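P.,

For your records, the input lines for the assembly:
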Amino acid sequence: MNGRPLAPRRLWWLAAGFTIWCLALVILYALHAIGCAFAWSAGPLRVSLAIVLLLHLIAIGWLWRYRAAARRDSGPEPISSFMHSVVIWTLIAALVATVITFGPALLLTTCV
Amino acid sequence: MSVPIEPQSQGMSALRLHRQLAAIWATGPGVQKLAAVNHSVLGMRMMITSFVFFAIAGILGMLTRVQLATPHAAFMDVETYNQVFTMHGSMMLFLFAIPMVESFAVYLTPKILGTRDFAFPRLTAYGYWCYLFGGTILTVSLILRSAPDGGWFMYTPLSSHVYTPGLNADVWLLGITFVEISALSLAMEIVVSILKMRAPGMSLDRMPIFAWYILVTAMMMIVAFPPLILGSILLEVERAFNLPFFDPTRGGDPLLWQHLFWLFGHPDVYIIFLPMAGVLSTMIPVFARRRLVGYKAIVVAIIALAFLSFGIWVHHMFTVGIPHLALAFFSAGSAIVAIPTAIQFFAWLATLSHGRPRWDVPMLYIFGFFFVFTCGGLTGVMLAMVPFDWQAHDTYFVVAHMHYVVAGALAFPMLAAFYYWLPLLTGRTAVHKLSIPAFWLVFIGFNMTFFMMHLTGLLGMPRRIFTYSGDEGWNGLNLLSSVGSFVMTIGFALVAIDILVQLRFGRRVRRNPWESTTLEWAMPIPPAPYAFASIPHVDEQTEQVGPGQLAASLARGEGYLGFTRNGWQEALGVHMTSGEPEQLIVLPRPTYLPLITATVTCVAVLAMLFKFYWLSLAFAFVTFGLFIYAGQSAGHARDYGALPVGRGVSVPPHTEVAGAPSWLALICTLVANGTLFTSLVFGTFYLWIAAPNWPAAVTPQPSRLLALVTLVALAAAAATTRGSLRAAAAERKPHGTIALTALALGVALVADVMLINGVMPNPREHALGATAAALLTYVAIHAGVGLLFLASNVLRLGAGFISARRLTDLRLTRLWVDYTLATAIVALGLVLALPGLVAMLGAKP
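Structure tokens returned:
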């Protein structure tokens, strides 16, 4: 072994991207249900949903940029490099999943 | 207590080492077998037990096919049919599929990781007994003709007391929850063991892909099971005490059950699929004779799959009246979940196409899987499309799809895995004369049975029907389907005969007959109770040597812990990411405690079932007491400092490090617990926004003073736990601060119970009061369990198990109380907010 081992807390990064995807799902689903229950008009409801989606996309995009720009974690090279690329790819996958899952749906009729 | 800390003589012969280790690790003969805590013994028992349930559930499936083979069949009456098809589904899913994949994980994971056992052997045993007892309750109910009869997903209001007044639904709710305790406990220890007990040097990037699959699956189980456990508790409380969580006439909503059920139910499909995909990812490179293509891509894919599988539960509810926009979220999610699955498929195909594949029995089943699961995946994408689902919902098309994905994803890889690992279990290999025809019978029978169901479904045949009139055009297809089920059963019977024949007459094989590269082959076959005579160090050199050659060196004790010491069952704990040795884990010896504790739990469940509620509560307390009692003998009553573990390395025992397995286990427990709590909060908001008959006639007026007292007391408890830790770390007695913590928790408990007593509207009259009572009860239970933690601390302080270096107990108590405080803030905040939320409903159109 060379160098300090990679800190176990780094493992949370593996879940970061898709946790935000889950959060987006829950918030969008809840906001949509509340909007429909209280008969919000379609325009404001759609805009609210779009803003929520955008915020989540920004969050995942920022994490991606942050991890991609950050130096690889200190620690033995193979594990550090492995974790770095797995985290980056989970973030990219989460970003794509967020766009595909929630983006087109916002064009549909809101409460029918 | 004074015991030697130096290991017994190094450099001993392999045979002598074997004898010494076997004397420590082996399970005793005769009745002592009931005290087994060894993962090999328990894994094998789980496998056999799950196969027994598979056989029972298979027979029930056959009975349904006999009934449906012809129109107007009088083979069964409708009540019997309802019980039979409900039990077929429930047993296959809860008593066979999940336990079967767990049994593979239990038996194989420690071996593949190069360690000797799981972190909590007594918990493995407790999990097994809970599974056996829970399954037995369900099976006996079938014999007594009181089995569940509302379908395997127990939809409300059919399963409510009004429409199912007997014990049938209670058997399901209590029996299945009992089995889920087993699943959760095993999941937690799998996570801890994979992260903390790998062979030294096995960093995460070197971890066998099987372990990644099992790790992700176990994490999924920790998050997936609590919503169903909560749903089952709420429904049982509704049935037993008339709290109307799912009753729409009193502010409840039957759809809440569907949400909670499918929050578990959909990930469950992947909980079954992923371990089998792990099996495939392990076997395919061996038969392709090259490394797995796309290791990193597969790790990313399984993480993506785990999350996506949770986000698409509503695709089982496309017809319940959810607006199109929300349906589109779940439809898109259900479609893209195919992508990470496809990544794995292409990685397997690439491995095969770039390798030099060789044929053997497991490969037949692997190709059976490819065919069946691809069909199931394609119909899954069809059902993910809302308009198609509206047409096919609740028809036999869904039954066909479900069997192709769940049965196909499980049965074919499972049989491949059996043929692959049977030489490890028995030292013998299959008789090809039987195994090849057995495969073709299973494959042809499976497709004949279930492919026809696509067609009957498209012709409009609804699922769960007892009979049909015969003029719908389903007759021939149903008959073929029924004939197919018999062909498939003959195939499975032949597989069973093949395995039995192999045990007696199979060809003896040398070690590592498949020339695999994973560590389970670097041990004697069949495996010794200690698994590895010494624990390997994993590096490039080891990987090049291969398990066959490594085995001899390990048997001579040339790895870590190649000796015995104090009669301890020793294993190594490692750093989570790098795999560097970090701690010496001393595991408990065989004990009857898991059996006794599971028996007491079973009595609590049975008392609940037969409505002896006080007795049930009493036995629940005894169960907690037994857990505390079990904890009294855990760890060491003295400090040891660094102990030699071989290869020139010394590490402290697990009692003297911050990252002991029990710390990680409590974190896993709290994640599961937090998911249950989040589901409860979700349920409260769901009823607020969606349930009919809100607001209630009576407006809630919770006491702010009592809520404040509860929170302040819990905050004080959290502060005093820190005081206890500081005192113990400074070698002072922490009894005073522990007493203060107990006092604070007691005050919080009393104030919270007073809040529950004052809940309005009456919890039996409206779901608003019922949800408030549920949130407050959650806090009360956690404060009560906090007191049990303190009781354990006091006992263990008295017995010398806690010192300035051995602080794990006090740290666990602090974590538990912190969690109680955090959830209490949310729960009490929500209860206090309920009047405002109810007032907002006035603005609803």
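Two observations worth noting. Residues 21-107 of chain A form one domain. Residues 24 and 56 of chain A are 6 Å apart (CA to CA).

Regards
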